[in-house]
Write a structure and sequence with these properties.
Elements: H1 2-17, H2 37-62, H3 73-85, H4 88-100
Helix pairs in contact: 2-3, 2-4
């Protein structure tokens, strides 16, 4: 019984050490003037580049098998996640940059 308890403890310890790390990404925007059209355009470019790079590297890991044919799944999910983390004023500046660039729908 004591041996079984030790084996279970070791197994649990090993499981906590061998956890897979989630890939993460983010963007810097504190250096941008979000009041200017140029600053908002740069924000949109940074978001597009971050999401594009992330989805190229990790898209197969984050996209469910049944949705692999949907080329917009990863960018949509990552944009939603990134926007959820943005402060309100940054999120509004990003949405305005999309409008200014004439971007609609699922395009970044």
């Amino acid at each position: 019984m004591m041996l079984l308890t030790k084996l279970i403890s070791l197994a649990l310890l090993g499981a906590s050490v061998v956890q897979a790390t989630e890939p993460s990404f983010g963007i810097a925007y504190s250096d941008l003037s979000l009041d200017s059209r140029f600053g908002r355009a740069e924000l949109r470019q940074r978001v597009t580049a971050a999401i594009g790079g992330y989805c190229r590297r990790h898209g197969d890991r984050v996209t469910p098998q049944a949705l692999r044919n949907d080329r917009y799944y990863c960018p949509d999910m990552m944009r939603s996640a990134l926007m959820a983390e943005m402060p309100r004023e940054v999120r509004h500046a990003y949405m305005q940059a999309r409008r200014e660039a004439g971007v609609r729908g699922r395009r970044l």
